[in-house]
Write a structure and sequence with these properties.
The chain has 199 residues and is mostly helical. It folds into two domains: 91 residues, RNA polymerase sigma factor, region 2, helix turn helix motif (Rna Polymerase Sigma Factor, Chain: A); 81 residues, Orthogonal Bundle (Arc Repressor Mutant, subunit A). Helix 2 crosses helix 4 and helix 7 crosses helix 8.
């Protein structure tokens, strides 16, 4: 029932936007802007540049809304426009610095050794700290669900380079997670007195 209500609201908004209704356009922007801004920030570190990409993407969404046929998820359709604009921005500004070394492509870190004591926000900060090429491929593969073939086509790289970037991103994240866990253990140890009691 709840799903149908949201679906009806989206259909109403889409129809309003197709009719160039300013109020519908504003409502659509207000509903999705913060979510898509966060998406842009996962690809583009500079917050102002990420906001510029968001505005450009929303302009395209509103100008091309007639291309949405009603099949599939509307948010997914918009998300694809936003991701494509973020990648387009990065290509234009040559900010990707993708490496082509495949030596680590088959390495798969063992995440089972790590205890999951991190908040989602901490993990997103770790992803943001990755080198640009690693971050882009990780976002496209692990979060957006693109295949290595699709990533290669989007970024103009080989599938093997995409695999290598993902592997390196995962290894870098594993290192960050282990360091974070060690800091947590150290904090707990520092908190305890030598005789085992706490301060």
């Amino acid at each position: 029932m709840e799903f149908q209500i949201y679906r009806a609201k989206d259909v109403e908004l889409i129809e309003g936007c197709k009719q160039q209704d300013r109020q519908a356009q504003k409502l659509l922007y207000d509903q999705y802007a913060s979510k898509f801004y966060a998406l842009c920030c996962r690809y583009i570190k500079d917050k102002m540049e990420a906001e510029d990409v968001l505005i450009t993407a929303f302009t395209k969404i509103l100008n091309r809304i007639d291309q949405y046929t009603g099949e599939g998820n509307f948010e997914g359709w918009m998300r694809k426009v936003v991701v494509n604009d973020a990648l387009s921005y990065l290509r234009k500004h040559k900010n990707m610095y993708l490496e082509t070394d495949i030596s680590a492509a088959d390495y798969e870190p063992d995440y089972d050794k790590l205890e999951n004591q991190l908040e989602a926000e901490d993990l997103l900060k770790m992803i943001e700290s990755l080198p640009t090429g690693y971050r882009i491929v990780f976002n496209l593969y692990a979060i957006e669900g693109y295949s290595h073939k699709e990533i290669g086509e989007q970024l103009g790289i080989s599938e093997n380079t995409s695999k290598s970037q993902l592997s390196r991103a995962r290894a870098a994240l594993q290192k960050c997670l282990m360091e974070s866990e060690q800091k947590l253990v150290q904090t707990i140890n520092d908190y305890e007195q030598p005789n085992g009691s706490t301060i």
